[in-house]
């Protein structure tokens, strides 16, 4: 599609988009035209919604027909906004609502490298950090190093579960062994991704208190990530589970 310079494409980093925050969008990719939300991850059929099973408007994403549907919807939205028909464009906007995650979901995962299974039941009574990461994601590796330091600082009061997505199991196992980090490494399953709201980008982090209540989430690697999460963990450690 060509608009003679009337349309500019802007790419914003995961977790650092003021527009996404304004709309409460916490998963990516999210496509906006102006300030109208055109598509969210569930439209593309990521993870739990079932790519290829009709779970999203543009699923399966690899098909030519899905690409054409997306291009047609994007073109229609651009044309409406260029014509000043904003109200009509908003009527076709995507749904930005996200599934609620008030508590640590129930799960049972095989631990990489052997050892006890990683289960939600085995984490009871501790603060829990669940980090979704990938071997191909540079910010994820530095985040895991930082999380390893947090685990060492708080000992048995804190558990960190590092769940790898879209990563070769052998590569994840090698990283786990080579790093020596005191984290509980596991591979994602569709059921786990769905339980956490269809994880579609990394790094993504969830923080739960010792009663299993979610107290914070972090998407991407924003500059204030370490300070914000450390402050939250310190407060939880002092107060028990408030």
Tell me the total number of β-strands.
9
Along the chain, the helix and strand elements come as HEEHHHEEEHEHEHEEH
Strand arrangement in the largest pleated sheet:
7-6-5-8-9
Q: Mind telling me the C-alpha Rg?
A: 20 Å
Q: How far apart are the termini? A: 53 Å
CATH architecture label name of the largest domain = 3-Layer(aba) Sandwich
CATH topology description of the largest domain: Glutaredoxin
How many separate structural domains? 2
Strand content: 15-25%
Query: Which CATH class of the largest domain applies here?
Result: Alpha Beta
The description of the largest β-sheet is: 5 strands, mixed
What sort of overall outline do the alpha carbons produce when their principal axes are compared? elongated
Structural class: alpha/beta
* Helix content bin: 25-40%
Describe how the helices and strands are arranged.
Layout lengths: L17 H6 L7 E3 L2 E4 L1 H4 L19 H19 L3 H6 L16 E2 L8 E2 L7 E7 L4 H17 L3 E7 L4 H11 L4 E4 L2 H6 L8 E5 L5 E6 L5 H15 L3
Parallel strand pairs: 5-6, 6-7
Antiparallel strand pairs: 1-2, 3-4, 5-8, 8-9
